[in-house]
Specification:
The complex is a heterodimer.
Chain A lengths: L6 E10 L2 E11 L4 E5 L6 H9 L6 E6 L2 E3 L3 H4 L3 E4 L11 H9 L6 H14 L15 H12 L6 E5 L7 H16 L3 E6 L2 H7 L2 E6 L2 E6 L1 H8 L3 E6 L3 H11 L3 E4 L2 E6 L4 H10 L4 E6 L2 H9 L5
Parallel strand pairs in A: 3-8, 3-9, 6-7, 7-8
Antiparallel strand pairs in A: 1-2, 1-4, 4-5, 9-10, 11-13, 11-14, 12-13
Helix pairs in contact in A: 3-4, 8-11
Chain B lengths: L7 H17 L1 H27 L1 E4 L2 E4 H31 L3 H5 L6 H29 L5 H28 L7 H14 L11 H9 L1 H9 L9 H27 L2
Antiparallel strand pairs in B: 1-2
Helix pairs in contact in B: 1-5, 2-3, 2-5, 3-5, 3-6, 3-9, 5-6, 6-9, 6-10, 9-10
Classes of the chains: A alpha/beta, B mainly alpha.
């Protein structure tokens, strides 16, 4: 796999009509690393990705990728990038196979080389038997895999995946995740935007949590969970807020309203003590579980991911 | 937006993509530009010739069908390049998102714009040439004249292709393309000296029609029957229109892709 010196976003800002939708985002992406932008709809994830490959012109800041500066040299930089946008912009005029061979032409991959590469990629994304199908005949998951295949024609050093599994069924998501991990294993640097915390937790080495265009925290998924929430939480129904407040204060725990009940963190040291106290209140429903990124988001932003 | 960022390969590659779509259904694609002028030449040439006989062109009487043929070439150019630029580019821009997909490849905006524009012009040129060949077969236009007219056909195709792209960049719904068709295209293809000499129109209307770019193209394409004295101005007029249209089109489409 070719080595690249990494991609770095420097202080990216973007405003539309004086409303800042991205505010000072900086990060870097290394080979073989999956960095996730996790945040609710409207957090600025897609705008940020647009600034990485040049269709969104930053109000301030820039992206450095190898020798290229983006947006000024975006077209040249894209020769080493693979981009999966949210739109399914496959070519309905061509078959599955020709979607790849004809797009390869833009990378100066032509003739037999284009056919060979298209064949390899169709095998990789498990669409070999659909080569002659029209794009419209493909399922949603197949289309996403074909868009990914198209983004890999040029053996890219970095791949941007903007909400790649939105709208896919669980099986199709698993298939897609397998491909993403395969790319990572081959040394690709991957930037993934998602609002699915399981996707972020499963795939990403590092996460940037976004809210209203700002990075509110970052780190590995396990580090973020451990640091912000701890190991475990309890979901409680049928215990009053006042009672939980008292318990939380006594144990240095954090709690907040959640659904029709409350969520409360259990201390890493001796969680049984607090757990026992909660049980003693005879809650209508009580669930003890591992803390997750959803809890992190809830604590940091006061809102759930959607 | 930097127009200098275009590369020959990038422009060619975008053009080539459109050509592949065309090639896959070439028979269907070739049919309208061939059948249309044949129908027009039959209908107007044979139908009206006995009634009209000869028309006066630059003080010289010429058979009506011969007068008509260059007008039909110009109309072929106008329709095919305009419709490709307006409808097809609009669909590629707003429904198929072809432009957006191309911009994930190492292609610049200029590559994609110029590739699309040159493709629209190619379709206009194909129509103009096919119409010209029909006229040659009907003995209404000399083959050598057609060869010499190729630069004119190309210039007209670029002009009306750019106008089509401008429309694609301005309208928000595909139905709105009808507005410039009824306000500009139809008056232009009927009044600018395509079917009859402009000087049969009331003077004011004739002058207005003479300013429309198709008038200049038709006048120039009619050179084998005699060249208008102001032909360098006509040529310049076409180049000017082309430049303005292309520039405006590029400026209008850009914000639909970049923010």
């Amino acid at each position: 796999m070719p080595h690249f010196p990494g991609l770095t976003a420097y202080d990216l800002w973007k405003s539309y009509n004086d409303v800042a939708v991205v505010q000072g985002i900086s990060f870097s992406l290394q080979p073989g690393e999956i960095v996730g932008l996790l945040g609710p709809n409207g957090a600025g994830k897609t705008t940020t990705v647009g600034m990485l490959f040049g269709t969104v012109i930053p109000s301030r800041g820039f992206v450095q990728f190898g020798p290229w500066q983006i947006p000024a040299q975006a077209a040249q930089a894209r020769a080493q990038m693979g981009i999966v946008t949210q739109d399914d912009n496959l070519d309905p005029d061509f078959t599955v196979f020709k979607n790849l061979t004809h797009f390869a032409h833009h990378y100066r991959i032509t003739g037999q080389a284009a056919k060979r590469r298209a064949g390899e990629l169709l095998a990789l994304v498990n669409l070999e038997d659909r080569a002659t199908a029209q794009v419209e005949e493909l399922s949603g998951g197949m289309k996403r895999r074909l868009v990914l295949a198209r983004a890999l024609l040029n053996h890219p050093q970095v791949v941007f995946l903007d909400e790649p599994t939105t709208g896919l069924d669980p099986d199709a998501r698993q298939d897609f995740w397998r491909l993403v991990l395969h790319l990572k294993a081959n040394g690709c640097g991957i930037l993934l935007t998602t609002h699915y915390m399981d996707e972020a937790q499963r795939l990403c080495d590092r996460l940037l949590l976004l809210q209203r265009g700002r990075v509110i925290d970052e780190g590995t998924p396990t580090d973020l969970i451990a640091r912000v929430i701890g190991r475990e939480v309890a979901e409680v129904e049928g215990v009053s807020g006042d009672q939980l407040n008292e318990l939380a204060q006594g144990y240095g725990a954090w709690y907040r309203a959640f659904g029709s009940g409350h969520l409360i963190t259990l201390p890493d040291q001796n969680p049984e003590a607090l757990w026992g106290q909660i049980e003693a209140h005879h809650p209508r429903r009580l669930l003890r579980r591992q803390a997750n990124l959803e809890d992190v988001f809830l604590r940091l932003t006061g809102s759930v991911l959607e | 937006m930097k127009l200098i960022s275009a590369t020959p390969w990038g422009i060619y590659s975008v053009w080539w993509r459109h050509f592949q779509v065309y090639r896959s259904t070439w028979l269907v694609n070739c049919l309208p530009p061939i059948s249309e002028p044949i129908v027009y030449l039959l209908a107007f040439g044979y139908g009206l010739s006995p009634l009209v006989g000869e028309v006066e062109h630059l003080g010289r009487a010429v058979p009506y069908a011969q007068f008509l043929a260059p007008g039909m070439i110009a109309i072929g150019v106008l329709f095919q390049s305009f419709f490709e630029g307006a409808y097809s580019s609009f669909i590629r821009l707003n429904f198929q998102k072809t432009w957006q997909a191309l911009l994930t490849a190492p292609l610049s905006y200029s590559d994609v714009f110029l590739g699309d524009w040159f493709w629209a012009a190619t379709k206009g040129a194909i129509a103009g040439i096919l119409t010209g060949l029909v006229a040659v077969l009907a003995n209404l236009y000399a083959f050598s004249s057609l060869v010499l007219s190729l630069p004119l056909i190309l210039l007209g195709s670029l002009l009306f292709g750019a106008f089509g792209l401008l429309v694609a960049g301005v309208v928000n719904k595909v139905d709105q393309v009808n507005v410039p068709i009824f306000l500009v295209i139809i008056p232009m293809f009927t009044l600018t000296g395509t079917y009859f000499p402009r000087d049969t129109l009331p003077p004011l209307l004739a002058q207005l029609a003479g300013l429309l770019p198709l008038a200049a193209l038709v006048d120039l394409l009619r050179w084998p029957l005699g060249l208008v004295p102001w032909w360098p101005l006509s040529l310049l007029w076409l180049v000017l229109w082309m430049g303005i249209m292309a520039r405006l089109a590029a400026l209008r489409i850009y914000p639909r892709l970049f923010s």
